[in-house]
Give the backbone structure.
Amino acid sequence: MNTALRLLTVLGGSILLTAAAGWAVDRLLRRADARHPETPLWNLLRRCRHALRIVLLAALFKGAYQQTGWPPLRDNAAAGRILSLALIGAGAWLIVVVASAAVESGYARYATGTRDPARVRRVRTQVTLITRVVTVVAAVIAVAAMLLTFPSFRALGTSVLASAGIIGIVAGVAAQSTLGNLFAGFQIAFGDLVRIGDTVVVAGEWGVVEDVTLTFLAVRTWDERRITMPVSYFTTRPFENWSRGGVQMTGTVFLHCDPGAPVDLVRDKVHEILHDCPEWDGRGWDLAVTETTPSTIVVRAIVTAKDADDLWTVRCAVREKLVAWLAEKHPGALPRILLDRAPTAHDATDGRHI
């Protein structure tokens, strides 16, 4: 058979077999998804078709490229090594995609059947970290397998293994901070310290946990800034987690008033404001004079809401409407600062004491 014809036969046959196998797998996954709509696994596995085709094409061509009879391929070891590298890389990609699909499918089914948002956020955090760990492990194994395809690295591996103890100690000392963050990430994910979607206060900043990785955690503040912190921060320092133990919250509103302010009328007005505020959850409220100063009294209103966002809205509404009502109906209830008029030179000429 002509060499060119053999080459075309091998290439064309490999491509046709790969296309046919990919089409068949995709059809089977479509049918499985149609028969089992309760789970998104089969639809998610369809994302694997590109990696699967590359694996099949590399495997078929690696097994048949020497049959082409074409000297640049038949007698060239580099061609076989390139195909091996492609097969290893595509195989690692396929493993990562399949594992991610399985993990995401499990999370989707759990989130659908669970009504507790705190548990859903906890599982979501764990799923995110598990997916990234699988990706890192698969990448490391793939790189190691690729390096072993080169004879020079095989010889080097013997000397590396001989000094593994020293290298391990040096690497452990050098990567102490990275390893600490890595283990802190697992502690956060499976110790339920903080979850994606939790409302936290860290370093004096209020925000929502937006992303958790193996080494850092991102917090989105109320003004849309992102604070990136090492995960070890949350295992070594105290922080406020307003979502832990339930998202319902209680807040306070403080006002400085004149000692003659009508506290009973203020209390009734706060109750009226809360009834007109849709963010108030109705669990409770209170108003009391909590402190006095030489010129004012401190009035504290306690309000409740279903989460941190609604609590902020309720507090602002009570403060704004209460101050406006006092300024309109009881202006004398607001604190007043009396200042003497500064003396002038005209006062001195009139014989006034300066």
